[in-house]
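chain below, 252 aa
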Amino acid sequence: MAGHSKWANIKHRKAREDAKRSKAFTKNIREITVAARTGGGDPSSNPRLSLAIQNAKAVNLPKDNIERAIKKGTGELDDGSGNYEEVTYEGYGPGGIAYFLEATSNNLNRTVGEIRHLFSKHGGNLGTDGSVAYLFEQKGSIKINDSGLDEEELMLLAIDAGAEDVEIEEDFIEIITARENLMAVKKNLEDQGIEVESAELMRIPMTEVSVDAETARKNLKLMELFDDNDDVSNIFTNMKLDDEVLAMASEG
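prediction:
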């Protein structure tokens, strides 16, 4: 999962920077709204909403914003912005790299137009539903900043809690779980005194495609542009990105 881990590291660092701006708030508000609409406004009986609220608090989203987002989702509040819908897009980037995008939009025509434009302008193309989905499997991802434990002890604790894998990154530790075990593993870790920074569902490529530095650079640029789009929630690719290629790509 070299490529997934490196992009996760880049995106995680970027998310910390975004936390200082309204952009991070926008994406978290939309997730809370959709979670409340699909599963109800009570986080105790809506695991997705509970998780969305925790992730929003991690980027310091004000309590009032969280409450308004829940009310918008349940229909108690109409702010005139329309209803947000979840949608996915699949396509290929430079060098034939597969892309799976998750988005939340109140104007699907606008969003698909913007996605198609970015793909086309940067050497890729928007595909049809199912064109790349089979290349990915859905997993849970839990990120921890500083557990106070040494790496070996944390890895053993994570595996005992039900994790499938542990990735030690420069700025954080990522724990991979089966999709259905995400919340249980998160709770087990927290019960052991481990502070979880974020938890979410990810799409991890079953096989990765190696690229040269130039192709990596082009795809990283495209991934950043997608990430800058408020409608796009998550970007997943099957690009293999090791330290050497990342270093060379960063020089450009």
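The radius of gyration is 18 Å. The chain has a mean pLDDT of 86.
thats it, cya
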